[in-house]
Amino acid sequence: MSIPTSGPETASTATATAPAATTAVTERQVADHLTQLLAEHLELELDLIDQDVPLSAYGIDSMTSTWLTRRLGERCGVSIDRALLVDRPSVAEVAQDVVAALAARGARDLADGTGTPGPQGTP
Q: What spans are recorded as compositionally biased (Low complexity) (predicted)?
């Protein structure tokens, strides 16, 4: 899976930081990537991670949440506060916030003329 990347900035919620992506990123893509990161870190098979189960059920601590948010943020081009993994407890909910941040960034960039709309599709 390929998700547009850029350098993140510090923020208290998921905040998009790069110019508008040329392809739309779906919640499913972000959730699948986060699931992959979680499975790798916990050394579990992908099918053992339920995207609707609270992350706390997997024993996510502050170090793990910091690692996950940094890796996901780098891959998606958004800055994600590790508290998001506590406030939005499931993979699916985190993915919703990331995609919302990317969409808001795209709309903001279009409004100020720094971005251009791109085709929707799989990044």
A: 10-24
